[in-house]
Specification:
about 425 residues, alpha+beta, Immunoglobulin-like, 4-stranded antiparallel β-sheet
Amino acid sequence: MPLLVTDYSWTQTDSMVYINVPLKGAKVGKVDILSTDEYIKVHYPPYLFEALLFEPVDDDRSTAKVGNGVVVISLQKRNNKVWDHLMITTSDKERKKEIRQQALLKYQEKLSAESQSRAEKKHTEKKYALETMMKLENEERESIQKMKDAERDKTTAELAAWQLRQKQQAEEEVQVKVQSQRAYQTKTKANTKNKERGCSEHLNNILCLDQRNQNETNCKKKQVDLPAPRLTGNIHVTFTPRVFPTALRESRVQEEEEWLKKQAEARHVLNADFEELNDLKKEHRNPDWLKEKGDKYFTNGDYLSAVNAYSLAIRLNRNIPALFSNRAACHLKLRNLHKAIEDSSQALNLLTPPVPANAAARARASVRRGSAFCQLQLYAEGLQDYQAALKIDPHNEALQADTQRIRDIIQGSEANPDTQ
């Protein structure tokens, strides 16, 4: 038989009722809270607190918070007036039993409605993701068609210009041929007249003049001095083998080379064995292109679309840490805290070995996982991640302040934590 809690406390205003129920050492995960507009039950074995409320409340606008050894229930009154009592004062067991049964039925209906709402939301999200992908495909198809049309117009214009040039060349050749024939006929007639007139001496002078001009031209060609050939040679260029901008440290060379090798291998891995991915365009099968799309969606506040873009990129290549880290940031915005922890952990696993080149990425992934732990009230785990990030970036004032705040929460100096 459960033990009834009697050392609770309650206060009220004209519009709100606040109830504080002590947990008596019970863990947060073992507290069961049932709430309707007329009935409140808090069960943490072997203790039980129940209240048949004096007046009905607005259950949808009421809240319950569990933490720091106490359950704080905030009830929104339907009528703004002061209650005489917290609970109804009646000894009728049948009346109490009827109220409990009605409360249980309402709670079950509420759970059913919430389940249906989640299913509809999930269906809507899938539909939106599909419509988004179809929209991207249509845009890509239209872009390709525009490129084809532009190339076809360009080719048509070049063909028309080439045909026009061919026609002009043919006309010019015909004109040159006609002029040559006319010149030949004129020259023939002139020669005939000269022969008839006996002008052989004039023709000889012309021939001599032409021969003399030709001889002078040949002499000038022989006198032209050609330039000497240019000298050849080889230019030797040497490059430093260092890749990282830091100074050479013999103890970190092997780790840096291992990190570079992993990065190079990650860019060449492509998981294309999914049948549903074979229909995607070439750009849509590029993880880098999908990552840029996800970054744009995140910047615009469309976190769900960003998650879809990062997820598709991860299916194509699971060896890029930034994809998991960025998707963890989206899950934090969407309050998918367990998924944020999983993605952050996967990113940290890929960011090995720890070298200066991936220090900033490790710090971001640690902070995101630590924030998810803290929002789940797992402050000890969250403190470890914040301390790991602070070790990487010890001069970050915001990180120092958040770490100290988590320490204060663990030590009990803040009663209502809200670490982001």
